[in-house]
Amino acid sequence: MVSVAMALSDGFGDFAGRTWLNTAHQGAMPLAAVRAGQEAIGWKANPAELTAKRFIEVPQRVRAVLARLVNAATDEIVLGNSASYGLHLLAHAYPWADGDEVLVMAGDFPSDILPWLLAEQRFGVRVRRISPRRNVVSVDEATAAMTSRTRLLCVPWVHSFSGAVTDIDAVGEVCRDRGVALVVNGSQALGARPFDASTTLVDALIGVGFKWLCGPYGTGFAWFHPALRGRLRRVKAYWLSQLSQADLARDDLTVEMPADRRPDEYDIFGTANFANYVPWAVALEHVLDVGVERIMGHDLALDNRLADGLREAGLPPDGPYGSPLVFFSHPDRAANDRVHAELAAAGVDVASRAGRLRASPHLYNTAADIDRLLAVVRG
Ligand SMILES: Cc1ncc(COP(=O)(O)O)c(C=O)c1O
């Protein structure tokens, strides 16, 4: 249990003396989660440890904590291994009709575009790209792009290549008015910003587990509004979702699901993925114990300290304030590679994206980490 008196960085490693300011690429895992993962890997050295109880409880635990994270019912959570899993699932399971349109954002992270392009090839869907004037789609741009054939709009909550934040409440309102499903990729915000599925006008929320949620790589989930989920086609027939232990050897198998459809019917295969899901559950519980609101306040304070310092150092941040991602650039853009290399050589890890530098501090970072970055760029 995390105590309020503890610093947010307590419970994480020492990063071998480096300063990790690249959560937008990979979040760091709490040490308790690392230990839990090591223990779970150890179960496989003695397979008797892989009990039937653990097969059931591990995915259940992840599903329950994700439901708490987004304030949804546990059976509305779909377990996955990426953002792409949830988006592909939706692209294949949506009940498309010929001529249906999907709107995406030009310049978005590819995971938000490619599944719909596949649906275009497979199901006769038409994908149209909105080119936003200011990095993310505004309400006016979304409204102007919609036609009577538009069924779905897919946008990032926070854009990976600019840090711009979509006003999902406002865009959600226009989508609801027009009967368009709003699909949001929250990978760059979940864990750093609160999300409430019971009040936000979003129909599907997709997220990775390995950035701001501090889980291992190869984790992700989706939440579908029950009204959307109820319309989806089945796209998998998985023995573990469909059969009980007693049914396994039946010779009259059918693909029919039991009448009481199971919460795991859309999950990725093999969710008793002990080595990944055990530490992920612990990492998620850590994030929730600290509290997402508290983490947001902490992260924003670091973002502001960084933005102010960068401006003073003559490398003004060009991203919007209030984003978990802070983009900045040397006045001579060609020098950004050198700045990136100098930061890395000085032990400070940021990302280089779209010709600019991107810092993304999170709960394990401190003001001293920001000052270490600033000392390098001042030099
Ligand atoms: C917005 C966004 N979505 C998704 C991903 C990753 O996608 P996936 O989990 O499908 O590999 C990233 C970055 O890695 C991202 O920035």
Characterization of this structure:
The chain is α/β, with parallel strands linked by helices. It is 37% helix and 13% strand. The protein is built from twelve helices and twelve strands. It has helices spanning 31-43, 52-70, 83-93, 114-123, 139-145, 168-178, 226-229, 239-242, 274-290, 292-312, 336-345, 367-378; strands at 19-20, 77-80, 101-105, 126-130, 150-156, 181-185, 204-208, 220-224, 326-328, 348-349, 351-353, 356-359. α6 (168-178) links the parallel β5 and β6 (181-185). The longest helix is centred in the last third of the chain and has 21 residues, at 292-312. The two termini are 41 Å apart. Pyridoxal-5'-phosphate (PLP) binds at residues 82-84, 109, 111, 156, 160, 185, 187-188, 208, 220.
Helix-strand topology string = EHHEHEHEHEHEEEHHHHEHEEEH
CA radius of gyration is 22 Å
Work out the strand percent.
Answer: 5-15%
Major sheet characteristics: 7 strands, mixed
Bound molecule kinds, no repeats: pyridoxal-5'-phosphate
